[in-house]
């Protein structure tokens, strides 16, 4: 890692410029190699700085506003934001200020703003972390906050924003004995069987990673397969499978799994994950709507707004504006109808999305139940260990929100329902 911390901070500012300026997602930028030239430690630091800054963006802007008569160009503004977040997290003032001044002074067009950077960050350091702590938890942008307040109410929204701001712990799904994984990793076992670790370090260095004893999967994301309850030897279709968290759960239960995803790049991740865990599945790179065959059980983890994953992906509300959600909602309905044709009589389909929008959950299932007279919501499937009755919805699905289990570190927002086909 560099002594000055300038390369990691410069990369964090680069990420923010593209997320906030061009609406790119962090995963797109890192996938395209944005951090590849940095040593591993700097890469981790750059990502952490960018994510922490996105989580605290509203607070950073409120503090900076006091010391700026007009906004400087985006790159300098982002350097000030990163510096503010670091200072308010308690980093040593001289290190942060020197690094940010150096970063700005080296910029080919904005070097003249190094004096401003120095003066503003010194004032932020003098304000101290108390000024930061006195501000409310950052709110989601209006385009997303509006529909979520309408769906869940203002109080629940504020609770979700608190959890978004806090970030997420590391959750693991065990290939076999979850208790043993909890012991080996120093984690706690949640009531639903997920192992949760607070303050985890590098994932690949943790006990059991190389042996494939577990994989990273949010506690909420582990539940759809529990609802499906695959049995050994059953023919199970995993539609929209990559990167394969649920594929591995299905395979670990002994099912004969066909995993379909239309992204060859993402399917390569499924292959790697299966190889590491020693599990097997037939992998097919294909549009889910072109899939054929007849299956005992189907898991449909449909593409969605991903608004349930903001704890882990605070870039999403800043990079998106909701304009593509209508197309996703239409595609989800098409996928439910297609999956229904591939399901044997008496079989079950678990539909799920990592979304907080009822249009991608409760409403999808309500409407599917009207379109398919041979479909019913299977309430018995929801009786899994740890699932709380309050999470069950009117149409017979499960609604999970980030503020559920807030005292344990929250969970991703998710919707899921088990739909049973008449014999
Ligand atoms: C929510 S992610 C799936 C996560 C995965 N089930 C897991 O547990 O790791 C949605 C996936 O849908 C895939 N996808 C999007 N449109 C698709 C389509 N038309 N056909 C097949 N896969 C699609 C994306 O490539 C993405 O991997």
From TrEMBL:
GO terms for molecular function: RNA binding; RNA methyltransferase activity. GO terms for biological process: regulation of DNA-templated transcription; RNA methylation. The keyword Transferase applies. Residues 132-422 form the SAM-dependent MTase RsmB/NOP-type domain. The active site is at residue 354. S-adenosyl-L-methionine binds at residues 240-246, 261, 301. InterPro entries: MeTrfase_RsmB-F_NOP2_cat, MeTrfase_RsmB-F_NOP2_dom, NusB_RsmB_TIM44, RCMT. Keywords: Methyltransferase, RNA-binding, S-adenosyl-L-methionine, Transferase. Belongs to the class I-like SAM-binding methyltransferase superfamily. RsmB/NOP family. PANTHER family: NOL1_NOP2_SUN FAMILY PROTEIN _ ANTITERMINATION NUSB DOMAIN-CONTAINING PROTEIN, NOP2 YEAST -RELATED NOL1/NOP2/FMU SUN DOMAIN-CONTAINING. This is Methyltransferase domain-containing protein. It comes from Roseobacter insulae. The lineage of its organism: Bacteria, Pseudomonadati, Pseudomonadota, Alphaproteobacteria, Rhodobacterales.
